[in-house]
Q: What sequence folds into this?
C-alpha cells in the first residue's frame, strides 16, 4: 500500500493473516502428513503419578477442592516461596508440551503438586510458554482430569498492557475476574473495561465459567521486568485464607532463605520488604 | 460445541442469526456489538472450541455495577425473543490452521439450531479492490441459492451490489478462465459462504471494503446497511445515536498518557 507521501508499506491487519484465503484443500498428501506429525508433536500430555489413588489415567477424576494455578514469573515464584518452600508437597502430575519456543527440543514440563496432609490443594506453576493453539488443550487435559470445586489463578502482566483513563502509578496493581459461580469476597477491583485477560488464565477461567466451576483470576500489572518482591507481595491477600487452612507461614514466617533463592536466580538487587 | 448458559438449551428455531467474521477492521464484530448493546440482548450460550484463541473479560455491555460480573468468553450467543433475533459474537481470531474446522463447527451448529436465515457481517481489504469496485458504494453482498429463494424480491428492491467475481490473473488470461470469488482480508468469509452453498443453508454475507484504523464509522455504515433490509430500528440514519455504543468501546486507541513521559 502506498502512503500519502508515496512510501510503499506492507499492509498489516490486526484481525486476519494475509494468506487466510488459502484453502487447506490445496495441500498435497506430504504436506498433510507433515502437518499431522507436527500437530501430534504439539499435543499437551499429562502424566499422573502412579502413587495417587483414583488415577485420572484410569478414567477417574482426581478430587481437587482447590486448584491454585500460577502463570508467569512473579506468580510462580510467589507460589514457590509462600507454599512449596515449606515442604509437605508431593508431585502428583506432570504436564508436558512442545512448541516453537521449547529449548533443546525436549518437552517443557509443568508440575502439579498436592499437599501431602490435607489433599485439599493442588498447586501448578506454569512458567513456560504455552502457544495459542495449545491453551485450549492444556485446560481440557488438566481441568478435565480433576474434579475441581474452586480454582484460583495468579497471573502477571506488563503494566503497559492495562488501559485506563488515568495511567497506572509506578506501583504494581491487582485486578480480578471471576466466574458467575464464585461466591467468596474479592479483595481487589475487577478488570475494568476494555481490558481483557488472555493466555492460559483466559482459557482456564473460560472453561470454569462454562462448566460452572467457582474460579477467579488475579492479574498483577507491574512495570518490573523480572520477578520482584513488591509485585509478588500483591498476591499475598488473595491466598491468605488458603494459607491459613494449610498452616503455611503467611504471617511473617516466610523464610528469608526462600526469598533469597528467588532473587539469587534473578541476580537483581532487591529490597527486602519484610514479607 | 454450543454450551447453553442455562441448564436447558434455548429454542432458536425460526430465528434470524446475525454473526460476524473476524476480518479486516473488525467491522462485523463492531456492528454485532451495536446490535447486542442496542437491543439489550441476553446471553444464552457459548461456542466452546479449540479453534479460537481464548480470551476472557467482564461484561462488555454492562451499564450497571450489578451486571458487570461473570466471565465473558471468545464466542457467545445472545438472543432477543421479541424480535426473533439471535446473535453470535466472536471476540478473538481463529487459529490459522483450524479455519476449516471452525467453519464446520459453525455450519453444524447453524443447521442444528434451525435458524430461518443467517446473515454474516464481514469486511475486505479496500486496497485490493479492482477497477469496477473502486467507484460507488463500498458495500457488497453475497447470497446462497437457498437464501436467494427466500429474499429475491427484497434484494431486488434494495438494489444492492453483488460481490464481483475476479479473474485469477487479471490481464494475463484471455477471459476464458472461470472468474473466482476473492475476498482478501475476509478471514473465513469465503469458506463459510461456499460451505453454506454446499449445505444448502440460507445465508447472506454483507461486507464492506475498508482498511485498518478507526473502524467505528465503518461499523455504523454496515449496520445501517443491514438495517435497511431487516428494519431492526426505524430511521436510524437520521439519528445515529439510536445505536447504543457499548462501554467496551472506550479507550480504543490506548489509555491515558503517563505524565512521567514529559
A:
Amino acid at each position: 500500500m502506498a502512503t500519502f507521501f508515496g512510501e510503499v508499506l506492507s499492509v498489516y491487519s490486526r484481525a486476519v493473516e494475509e494468506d487466510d484465503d488459502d484453502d487447506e484443500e490445496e495441500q498435497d498428501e506430504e504436506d498433510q502428513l507433515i502437518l499431522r506429525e507436527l500437530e501430534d508433536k504439539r499435543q499437551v500430555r499429562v502424566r499422573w503419578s502412579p502413587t495417587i489413588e483414583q488415577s485420572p489415567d484410569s478414567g477417574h477424576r482426581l478430587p481437587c477442592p482447590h486448584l491454585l494455578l500460577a502463570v508467569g514469573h512473579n506468580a510462580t515464584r510467589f507460589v514457590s516461596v509462600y507454599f512449596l518452600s515449606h515442604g509437605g508437597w508431593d508431585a502428583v502430575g506432570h504436564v508436558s508440551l512442545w512448541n516453537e519456543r521449547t529449548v533443546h527440543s525436549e518437552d517443557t514440563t509443568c508440575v502439579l503438586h498436592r499437599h501431602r496432609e490435607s489433599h485439599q490443594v493442588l498447586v501448578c506453576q506454569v512458567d513456560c510458554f504455552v502457544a495459542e493453539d495449545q491453551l485450549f488443550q492444556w485446560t481440557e487435559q488438566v481441568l478435565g482430569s480433576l474434579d475441581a470445586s474452586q480454582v484460583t489463578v495468579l497471573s502477571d502482566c506488563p503494566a503497559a498492557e492495562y488501559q485506563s483513563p488515568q495511567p497506572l502509578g509506578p506501583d504494581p496493581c491487582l485486578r480480578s475476574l471471576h466466574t458467575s459461580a464464585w461466591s467468596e469476597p474479592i479483595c481487589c477491583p475487577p478488570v475494568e473495561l476494555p481490558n481483557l485477560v488472555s493466555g492460559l488464565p483466559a482459557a482456564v477461567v473460560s472453561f470454569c465459567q462454562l462448566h460452572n466451576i467457582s474460579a477467579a483470576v488475579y492479574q498483577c500489572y507491574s512495570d518490573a521486568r523480572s520477578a520482584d518482591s513488591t509485585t509478588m507481595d500483591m498476591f499475598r491477600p488473595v491466598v491468605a485464607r488458603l494459607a491459613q487452612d494449610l498452616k503455611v507461614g503467611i504471617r511473617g514466617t516466610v523464610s528469608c532463605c526462600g526469598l533469597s533463592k528467588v532473587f539469587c536466580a534473578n541476580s537483581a538487587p532487591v529490597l527486602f520488604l519484610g514479607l | 460445541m454450543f454450551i447453553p448458559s442455562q441448564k436447558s438449551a434455548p429454542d432458536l428455531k425460526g430465528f434470524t442469526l446475525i454473526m460476524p467474521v473476524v476480518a479486516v477492521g473488525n467491522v462485523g464484530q463492531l456492528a454485532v456489538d451495536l446490535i447486542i448493546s442496542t437491543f439489550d440482548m441476553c446471553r444464552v450460550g457459548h461456542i466452546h472450541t479449540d479453534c479460537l484463541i481464548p480470551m476472557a473479560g467482564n461484561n462488555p455491555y454492562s451499564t450497571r455495577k450489578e451486571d458487570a460480573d461473570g466471565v465473558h468468553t471468545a464466542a457467545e450467543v445472545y438472543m432477543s425473543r421479541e424480535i426473533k433475533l439471535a446473535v453470535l459474537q466472536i471476540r478473538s481470531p481463529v487459529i490459522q490452521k483450524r479455519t476449516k474446522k471452525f467453519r464446520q463447527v459453525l455450519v453444524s451448529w447453524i443447521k442444528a439450531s434451525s435458524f430461518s436465515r443467517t446473515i454474516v457481517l464481514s469486511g475486505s481489504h479496500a486496497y485490493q479492490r479492482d477497477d469496477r469496485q473502486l467507484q460507488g458504494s463500498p458495500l457488497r453482498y453475497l447470497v446462497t441459492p437457498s437464501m436467494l429463494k427466500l429474499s429475491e424480491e427484497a434484494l431486488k428492491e434494495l438494489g444492492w451490489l453483488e460481490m464481483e467475481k475476479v479473474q485469477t490473473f487479471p490481464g494475463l488470461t484471455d477471459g476464458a478462465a472461470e472468474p473466482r470469488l476473492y475476498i482478501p482480508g475476509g478471514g473465513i468469509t469465503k469458506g463459510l459462504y461456499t460451505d453454506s452453498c454446499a449445505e444448502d443453508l440460507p445465508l447472506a454475507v454483507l461486507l464492506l471494503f475498508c482498511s485498518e484504523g478507526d473502524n467505528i464509522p465503518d461499523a455504523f455504515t454496515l449496520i445501517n446497511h443491514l438495517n435497511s433490509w431487516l428494519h431492526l430500528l426505524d430511521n436510524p440514519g437520521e439519528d445515529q445515536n439510536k445505536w447504543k455504543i457499548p462501554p467496551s468501546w472506550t479507550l480504543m486507541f490506548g489509555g491515558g498518557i503517563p505524565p512521567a513521559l514529559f
